[in-house]
Design a protein that fits this description.
Blueprint (H helix, E strand, L loop, with lengths): L6 E9 L2 E7 L11 E8 L8 E3 L11 E3 L4 E4 L3 E7 L2 H14 L3
Antiparallel strand pairs: 1-2, 1-7, 2-3, 3-5, 3-6, 4-5
Length: 105
Amino acid sequence: MHPRPGEVWLADLGIAAKTRPVVVVSRFDQDPPRALVIYLPLTTQVRGSDYEVDLPALPFLRQMGAANVQGIGSLPLVRLERRLGVLPPETFARVKEALRFVLDL
């Protein structure tokens, strides 16, 4: 399994045995040194801050929401359960810009 940047996956985040949608933000690498993926959780609790990226209506998500850029994390590839879809290129560009802001890059 080789998730690509901008893909949305259902992932086991280990929080009360719940799975949540996440967007992959780590670079594509067919042979990474560790079997980890860097992600942002998606949330429906939108606060309208610079630490979120509003998402358009997406056919593979039940509700509109946002990518929580402050919630950046990593998890083993085996915790990705299934690919849900891909963010539109313009939305993923806004995600990358928000990451630069949050990480002060």
